[in-house]
């Protein structure tokens, strides 16, 4: 047995618990990228995560990028750019996609807000929803049922529909220190040496070299 935590390549890292899995090992789409140790919990099993990534068509070219050490609860949903409709037309109905003569109105491009990005060490509560092109920065917390329509600053708790900042998790100096340390990129031996400090509120206890 490893003395430095479970391997990130383990599908179900908690013995006997099939509902929780390291998410990267269940991803089949090339346009979804997930970092090591990020887990998804779902009573149906973590393989159901991709069914919550909606309107994600390869022709749109957008990606869902999720960092390391994120905690993603059941039914967190990501709305991708394939669900966008033009709002500058006289109609919002997507006539051209149905063809049969309507393709004459096909635009040169469809609305696209870019990649959706979740940073490292982000906790996303049950049934939260993230809209296209949003970035949720490192250490943020998204409360249960929130609808995230704009970028979330690092180490900030957001809640509501639309999600609004509730408070910062730490003072600015601590946030800056955590961002500079980038502990999520440490090797597993260093993470293990620092696991007690990581599971405390004392940033000064973390190794600096």
Keyword list:
seven-stranded mixed β-sheet; 15 strands; 209 residues; mainly beta; four-stranded parallel β-sheet; 3 helices; 2 domains; UDP N-Acetylglucosamine Acyltransferase, domain 1
What strand line-up does the widest sheet have?
1-3-6-9-12-14-15
Oligomer: single chain
Low-confidence stretches: none
Question: Helix segment count?
Answer: 3
Share in β-strands: 15-25%
Q: How would a crystallographer describe the biggest sheet? A: 7 strands, mixed
Q: How large is the radius of gyration? A: 19 Å
Number of domains: 2
Whole-Å distance between the termini?
27 Å
- What name is given to the CATH topology of the largest domain? UDP N-Acetylglucosamine Acyltransferase, domain 1
What's the CATH C level of the largest domain?
Mainly Beta
Layout of secondary structure:
Layout lengths: L19 E3 L9 E3 L4 E3 L11 E2 L9 E3 L4 E2 L4 E3 L36 E3 L4 E2 L4 E2 L4 E2 L4 E2 L4 E2 L7 E4 L4 E5 L3 H10 L6 H6 L1 H4 L11
Parallel strand pairs: 2-5, 3-6, 4-7, 5-8, 6-9, 7-10, 8-11, 9-12, 10-13, 12-14
Antiparallel strand pairs: 1-3, 14-15
